[in-house]
Design goal:
Radius of gyration of chain B: 13 Å
Structural class of chain A: mainly beta
Radius of gyration of chain A: 14 Å
Shape of chain A: globular
Largest sheet of chain B: 7 strands, mixed
Number of strands of chain A: 11
Helix content of chain B: under 10%
Order of helices and strands of chain B: EEEEEEEEEEE
Distance between the termini of chain B: 36 Å
Distance between the termini of chain A: 41 Å
Strand content of chain A: over 45%
Strand content of chain B: over 45%
Number of helices of chain A: 0
Shape of chain B: globular
Structural class of chain B: mainly beta
Largest sheet of chain A: 6 strands, mixed
Largest interface: A-B, 27 and 29 residues
Helix content of chain A: under 10%
Oligomer: heterodimer
Number of helices of chain B: 0
């Protein structure tokens, strides 16, 4: 069965450093991958989407890479700030596995803490 | 902009009781879905709908019913609550047409079954 792993439950870094979060998947060939941010007591909020034929996507201080050979996505936050502290979720589509466009499978998330 | 609105925010039920979790969106999105989020697990898809009158099962549909009579509303029903259904429930919607559409989530309903 398809499996998606975010290999760190928690990541602690100093303000100003670059945070790098990892999302790995197995038994899978997603058409695209999404990253979400979730704050305590709130629903996930969409950040970035990257397609299988894209290597890298950027949005302000955020960068996502997608390596379909390694079956891995990296999510970077440069010049991190305490306000970036949250849980970050990666999600893959289910298009090629009988799912409807819109059905996603989520990782467990990585809780990022940025210390001043 | 309201986006996706879920009610109630919190609920405590006794085993065997029934209830309906409400979800409404004002973005005219055809696709809506329900997820549950449990500690140590990712969000898991319960049911989804690609438009009014059309629903289908996700990964963990047992114990839940849904209906979609309007584009705006997608209620989730627990017919006979069980302690295993204690969870945080999220409703989401997205535009159809094109794979690169993000999900818009509500802020969840925290449900405890005693």
């Amino acid at each position: 069965s398809q499996k998606i792993e975010q290999n760190s439950e928690a990541l602690n870094i100093q303000e100003g450093k670059t945070a790098t979060l990892t999302c790995n998947y197995t038994n899978y060939s997603p058409a695209y991958l999404q990253w979400y941010r979730q704050d305590p007591g709130r629903g996930p909020v969409f950040l970035l989407l990257i397609r299988e034929n894209e290597k890298e996507k950027r949005k302000e201080r955020l960068k996502v890479t997608f390596d379909t050979t390694l079956k891995q996505s990296l999510f970077h936050i440069t010049a991190s700030q305490p306000a970036d502290s949250a849980t970050y979720l990666c999600a893959l589509d289910m298009l090629r596995y009988g799912g409807s466009q819109g059905n996603l499978i989520f990782g467990k998330g990585t809780k990022l803490s940025v210390k001043p | 902009n309201a986006g996706v609105t879920q009610t109630p925010k919190f609920q405590v039920l006794k085993t065997g009781q029934s209830m309906t979790l409400q979800c409404a969106q004002d973005m005219n999105h055809e696709y809506m879905s329900w997820y549950r989020q449990d500690p140590g697990m990712g969000l898991r898809l319960i049911h989804y709908s690609v438009g009014a009158g059309i629903t289908d099962q996700g990964e963990v549909p047992n114990g839940y019913n849904v209906s979609r009579s309007t584009t705006e509303d997608f209620p989730l029903r627990l017919l006979s609550a069980a302690p295993s259904q204690t969870s945080v429930y999220f409703c989401a919607s997205r535009e159809t047409g094109g794979e690169n559409q993000p999900q818009h989530f509500g802020d969840g309903t925290r449900l405890s079954i005693l």
